[in-house]
C-alpha cells in the first residue's frame, strides 16, 4: 500500500509531502487499518478550512481525499503526522 | 455565495472532529441509552453551535451581553493551554488581570493580545476584534511539535514549533497580531479565503501584524524591518523571517524550506490551486504596496497608511470576493476621503502603480 500525504497552506504557506510504502513492513497491517479509517472520514473535494490552517491531501493506492485543520479525525491526524515524519 | 457568511463557513466546533458525523448519526440511532445518549447530546450541541455561529456571522456582531465586570476600552483576555493535545480551547491558565506565570509562552500570548487590542483601540478607536469588546481567547501548546498558528473563526491557536524548522509561534508579536487581524477581517470585510480575495485577507493580517510590532516598539516606517515572523525560524534555517513586505521573495532561502516564493509585483503573480489559490504567496503584492505607501509617507505607519487600509477594511464597500484592483481603488478613495488631495493620495496611488495593480 502506498500512502501519500501533501500538506499545503499554514501560516508559512510552505508545502510538504511524503510517502510511505508499506510493502514488506512489519507494521503494514497497522498502517493499512489507520489509512483506511483516515480515508473513510475524508472528503472528495478540499474543504475551505480556516485562515492559516493546514490543508491536507491523502492518497492511498490512487484514492485521494482531503481534510483540513482543525477538523481532523484522530486517525487522520495520526496518519498525517506519521507519514510526514517517517515517510520519504 | 450566501451574503453574510464567513470564509469559515465550513467550520464546525472542534468536538465534532473527535468522532466523525456519520459515526455519531449511527450511534444516535442505537437502542442502548449508554450508546445513544452521548451521541445525541453531541449532535444537539453540534446543531446548536452551528446555528449560533450562522447567526453570529449573518447578524454581524454577537448578541452576547457583556459580563457585568466588562469595561469598554479594556481587553478581556484568556489564555488556554492545550497541553500538547488538540482539543480546544484547553485548560484556562491566565485570565484578564492575572499576574504573569512561569510559562513564557502564556505570558507572550497574553502580552501580544494586549498589544493588538491597544493598537486597534488607540489608533482606530476599535474596541477589540469585533468592535464591541469581544473577549480575546488564545490557546498555546497546541498539538506536539506543531509548526503552525491559525485563527479558527473564534480564537487563536499557537503551536510550539518542532525546534528544527520553527520555534514557538508566540515569539513574534506580529504573528499574534496577524492571527487576531484575521478575526477583525472576519467581522468586517470578511474576505473569502481563496485566490486574490484570500491573498488580500492574508495581506491585511500581515499589514496589521507588522503595525502592531511597530506600534509596540514605537518605530517609524524607516526604522521598521517590515518582516513577518522574524525570530520564528530555528537557528539552523537559512533565513531571517517568513515574509518580507519590503522585499517579498527574500525572507528565506534554505535547503529544507526552499526559497521564499512571494512576488512583489503583478509581473510575477503566481497562479496555483494550492494554498487556497496561493493566498500566502500573492499576498506579497499588496504587502509591498502597503510598504511603499508607508515608507513614502514616513513617520508612524499606523497613522496614515494604516488608517487608509483600516478605512477600506471596515468601510463596508469592500466585497467579500474583492480582487486586488477593487482593494487598490478603494484605498485611493479612502486616502482622498480622509486626507484630501495631498501626499497621502499620491503615495497610495503611486504604490499600487509600482506593484502593477490597476486602480479604477
From TrEMBL, chain A:
Pfam families: Emfourin. This is Metalloprotease.
Amino acid at each position: 500500500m502506498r500512502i501519500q500525504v501533501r500538506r499545503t497552506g499554514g501560516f508559512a504557506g510552505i508545502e510538504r509531502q511524503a510517502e510511505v510504502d508499506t510493502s514488506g513492513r512489519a507494521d503494514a497491517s497497522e498502517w493499512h487499518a489507520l489509512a483506511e479509517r483516515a480515508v473513510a472520514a475524508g472528503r472528495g473535494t478540499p474543504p475551505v478550512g480556516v485562515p492559516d490552517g493546514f490543508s491536507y491531501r491523502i492518497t492511498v493506492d490512487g484514492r485521494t481525499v482531503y481534510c483540513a485543520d482543525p477538523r481532523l479525525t484522530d486517525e487522520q491526524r495520526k496518519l498525517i503526522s506519521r507519514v510526514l515524519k517517517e515517510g520519504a | 455565495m450566501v451574503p453574510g457568511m464567513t470564509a469559515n463557513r465550513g467550520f464546525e466546533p472542534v468536538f465534532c472532529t473527535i468522532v466523525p458525523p456519520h459515526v455519531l448519526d449511527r450511534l444516535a440511532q442505537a437502542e442502548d441509552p449508554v450508546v445513544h445518549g452521548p451521541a445525541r447530546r453531541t449532535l444537539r450541541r453540534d446543531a446548536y453551535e452551528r446555528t449560533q455561529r450562522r447567526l453570529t456571522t449573518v447578524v454581524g456582531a454577537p448578541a452576547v451581553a457583556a459580563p457585568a465586570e466588562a469595561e469598554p476600552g479594556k481587553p478581556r483576555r484568556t489564555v488556554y493551554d492545550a497541553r500538547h493535545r488538540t482539543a480546544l480551547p484547553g485548560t484556562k491558565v491566565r485570565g484578564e488581570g492575572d499576574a504573569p506565570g512561569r510559562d513564557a509562552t502564556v505570558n507572550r500570548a497574553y502580552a501580544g493580545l494586549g498589544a493588538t487590542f491597544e493598537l486597534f483601540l488607540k489608533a482606530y478607536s476599535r474596541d477589540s476584534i469585533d468592535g464591541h469588546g469581544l473577549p480575546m481567547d488564545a490557546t498555546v501548546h497546541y498539538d506536539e511539535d506543531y509548526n503552525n498558528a491559525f485563527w479558527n473563526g473564534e480564537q487563536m491557536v499557537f503551536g510550539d514549533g518542532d525546534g528544527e524548522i520553527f520555534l514557538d509561534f508566540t515569539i513574534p508579536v506580529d504573528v499574534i497580531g496577524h492571527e487576531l487581524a484575521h478575526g477583525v477581517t472576519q467581522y468586517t470585510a470578511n474576505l473569502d479565503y481563496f485566490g486574490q480575495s484570500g491573498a488580500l485577507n492574508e495581506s491585511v493580517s500581515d499589514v496589521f501584524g507588522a503595525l502592531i510590532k511597530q506600534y509596540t516598539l514605537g518605530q517609524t516606517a524607516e526604522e521598521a524591518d517590515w518582516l513577518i515572523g522574524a525570530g520564528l525560524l530555528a537557528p539552523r534555517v537559512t533565513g531571517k523571517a517568513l515574509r518580507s513586505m519590503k522585499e517579498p521573495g527574500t525572507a528565506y532561502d534554505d535547503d529544507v524550506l526552499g526559497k521564499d516564493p512571494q512576488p512583489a509585483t503583478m509581473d510575477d503573480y503566481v497562479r496555483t490551486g494550492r494554498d487556497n489559490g496561493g493566498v500566502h504567496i500573492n499576498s506579497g503584492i499588496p504587502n509591498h504596496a502597503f510598504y511603499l505607501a508607508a515608507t513614502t509617507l514616513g513617520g508612524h505607519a499606523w497613522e496614515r497608511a494604516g488608517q487608509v487600509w483600516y478605512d477600506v477594511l471596515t468601510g463596508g464597500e469592500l466585497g467579500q470576493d474583492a480582487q486586488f484592483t477593487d482593494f487598490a481603488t478603494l484605498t485611493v478613495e479612502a486616502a482622498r476621503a480622509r486626507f484630501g488631495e495631498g501626499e497621502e493620495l499620491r503615495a497610495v496611488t503611486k504604490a499600487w502603480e509600482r506593484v502593477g495593480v490597476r486602480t479604477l
